[in-house]
From TrEMBL:
Cofactor: Mg(2+)
GO molecular function: ATP binding; ATP phosphoribosyltransferase activity; magnesium ion binding
Gene Ontology terms: cellular component: cytoplasm
Protein name, UniProt field: ATP phosphoribosyltransferase
Regulation: Feedback inhibited by histidine.
PANTHER family documented for this protein: ATP PHOSPHORIBOSYLTRANSFERASE, ATP PHOSPHORIBOSYLTRANSFERASE ATP-PRTASE
Free-text function comment from the UniProt entry: Catalyzes the condensation of ATP and 5-phosphoribose 1-diphosphate to form N'-(5'-phosphoribosyl)-ATP (PR-ATP). Has a crucial role in the pathway because the rate of histidine biosynthesis seems to be controlled primarily by regulation of HisG enzymatic activity.
Protein's GO biological process: L-histidine biosynthetic process
Length: 279
């Protein structure tokens, strides 16, 4: 039975749980539930703090888990990233009072507040900058104003939290993070099915199915606009001068692709959502 760690709180939790539900797994009905057995799929879910997930997986107590790349690296766990998800994207950056810092070396001899001390210490050491890392649990943007640090290092998504505290980003990108699937090893029984199901959810969200009718002689040109995953499905119509085409298209490109197909001569262009996929 595959034992899977899922974030019980925080930014990653809701999307991770939605993905599991869409992939056909049992999810908790009440936020107090910590363990959710799913015998039908031969898996068991453990709802844990995102920050602790790498520790559980690295130690072998659990087989796989969903967490953030930044949390994985910060934990110094031996678990490894095996897949990347398309949610939870953020960057990890240094920030300081507007106008006070311009480059990484300005941090020498200063105090840097962060809740990711493992990650920040590793980075500063690799870059040869000697600074004191002040560990805080969260809301680190207040640390400068309150005088416990000169600069901060934190998760930045829109940057609005920093701006509100009179801070600005400086120096190199410490890390590009996203939600990831981590495991102690990649040859665990049942892991491939779990990965394929989650990939299927991502594909179903990212793509739409497009159907259109096309004068047969235009199929080469249309295939350049809609190449599909492998290749478009082309079926005959009763009128031999026309064909019907079915193809997957990235959801974000839907309208541009419809415009281009219409301009080429395609008609009856229909778009439908993909409910589930196994690619
Ligand atoms: N805007 C964001 N704020 C915080 N974390 C984010 C954001 N966007 C993505 N993440 C990712 O979420 C993970 C942080 O998980 P965490 O549990 O700390 O979430 P949180 O929203 O900060 O929850 P809390 O502060 O209540 O503990 C990290 O991997 C981080 O990169
Ligand atoms: O760039 P932004 O879009 O403003 O988002 C980033 C902010 O969001 C998170 O804070 P969170 O609300 O999780 O509080 P925390 O610092 O206590 O974890 C993160 O720690 C940053 O402070
Ligand atoms: Mg947080």
């Amino acid at each position: 039975m595959l034992r899977i760690a899922v974030p019980n709180k925080g930014t990653l939790s809701e999307t991770a749980v939605d993905m599991l539900r869409e992939a056909g797994y049992a999810v908790r009905r009440d936020p107090k539930e910590l363990i959710v057995p799913d015998p039908r799929n031969d898996v068991e879910f453990f709802y844990l703090r995102p920050r602790d997930i790498a520790t559980y997986v690295g130690s072998g107590a659990l087989d796989v888990g969903v967490t953030g790349r930044d949390l994985l690296l910060d934990s110094h766990s031996t678990a490894v990233e095996i897949d990347e998800f398309d949610f939870g994207a953020s960057t990890f950056r240094f920030a300081g009072p507007v106008g006070e810092f311009t480059k990484l070396s300005d941090l020498a001899g200063t105090r840097v507040a962060t809740s990711y001390s493992g990650l920040v210490e590793d980075f500063l050491e690799a870059q040869g900058v000697r600074a004191t890392v002040v560990h805080l649990d969260g809301a680190v943007e207040s640390a400068v104003r309150l005088g416990v640090a000169d600069a901060v290092a934190d998760v930045v998504e829109t940057g609005s939290t920093l701006r509100k505290q009179g801070l600005e980003i400086f120096g190199p990108v410490i890390l590009e993070s996203t939600a990831v699937l981590i495991a102690a090893r990649d040859d665990i029984d049942g892991l491939e099915t779990f990965r394929r199901r989650l990939q299927g959810v991502m594909v179903a969200r990212r793509y739409v199915l497009m159907d259109y009718d096309l004068p047969a002689e235009l199929i080469e040109k249309a295939s350049k606009i809609t190449p599909g995953f492998e290749s478009p499905t082309v079926s005959p119509l009763r009128d031999t001068g026309w064909v019907a085409v079915r193809v997957m298209v990235p959801r974000d490109d839907t309208n541009e692709v419809m415009d281009a197909l219409y301009a080429l001569g395609a008609r009856a262009i229909l778009v439908s959502s993909i409910h589930a996929a196994r690619i």
